[in-house]
Amino acid sequence: MLIVPVKEGETVDKALKRYKRKYEKANILKELRERKAYQKPSEKRRNEIQRAIFIQKLQAGLIKKKK
Asked: Residue 4 class from Cβ within 10 Å (0-12 exposed, 13-18 middle, 19+ buried)?
């Protein structure tokens, strides 16, 4: 559970922004998605390799990004 202490005189918007930043850094959403369904270690490795190949192709200019 994330706790963001609100400083005296701080607006709710700033506190909420700090909470969101802390939430992203904690990788909570990523962990929730991973726990949604079990993935075998061999599947994880295969996905990592495919992701790395895709990123390399993007950087080489072989694949164009969708907008």
From this structure: middle
Task: Give pLDDT, residue 55.
Answer: 93
List the structure tokens of 37: 């369904």
For residue 57, give every residue at least 6 positions away whose Cβ sits within 8 Å of its Cβ, in sequence order, or none: 63
Domain boundaries, the chain: 12-60
Report which of residues 67 and 50 the model is more confident about: 50
In a 10 Å sphere around its CB, with 0-12 CB exposed, 13-18 middle and 19+ buried, how is residue 1 labelled? exposed
* Beta strand spans in 1-67 (E): none
Q: Are 49 and 31 in contact (CB under 8 A)?
A: no
| 5, two tokens | 């202490």
